[in-house]
Design brief:
- With 119 residues, this protein is α+β, with helices and mostly antiparallel strands.
- Helices cover 37% and strands 18% of the residues.
- The protein has one domain (7-108): Gyrase A, domain 2 (2-Layer Sandwich), CATH 3.30.1360.20.
- A hairpin with a 6-residue loop joins β1 and β2 (31-36).
- The radius of gyration is 14 Å and the shape is globular.
- The relative contact order is 0.30.
- It comes from Ruixingdingia sedimenti.
- Keywords: Lyase.
Length: 119
């Protein structure tokens, strides 16, 4: 079973993800990113590649797609917050997104998640 990120893991991984456009989801131990692709076909292709990566990691995102926009939230439901599964999938999705435009300002800054979550 996956475990919540430790304080050290959060400090090591989350700032770099924040630099790429991942943001904290207010009120949740989760990260969110939105990509805008040139068209629906590119967005759907990204989602297909991301779905295969998610399946390989046995970790599935919360996401939605409207035309060229793909909106993704990552959190590990099995442990109730962020785990290494989220970090791995976020990095893979970033690598797959290519030159898609990143929509910013949809969440809170990542530093709000760098400390270990308290229950």
């Amino acid at each position: 079973m996956p475990t919540l990120l430790t304080e050290a893991e959060r400090a090591a991984a989350l700032p770099a993800l924040g630099d790429t456009g991942w943001e904290a989801v207010p009120g949740r131990d989760a990260i969110r990113k939105m990509w805008r692709f040139e068209d629906f076909s590119q967005a759907w292709g990204f989602m297909s590649r991301a779905a295969l990566a998610a399946e390989a990691l046995n970790h599935h995102p919360e996401w939605r797609n409207v035309y060229s926009l793909v909106d993704v939230v990552l959190s590990t439901h099995d442990c109730g917050g962020l785990s290494m599964r989220d970090i791995r999938l976020a990095r893979r999705m970033d690598a797959m997104a290519g030159g898609a435009e990143v929509e910013r300002g949809h969440g809170a800054p990542i530093p709000t998640l760098t400390a270990t979550r308290t229950a």
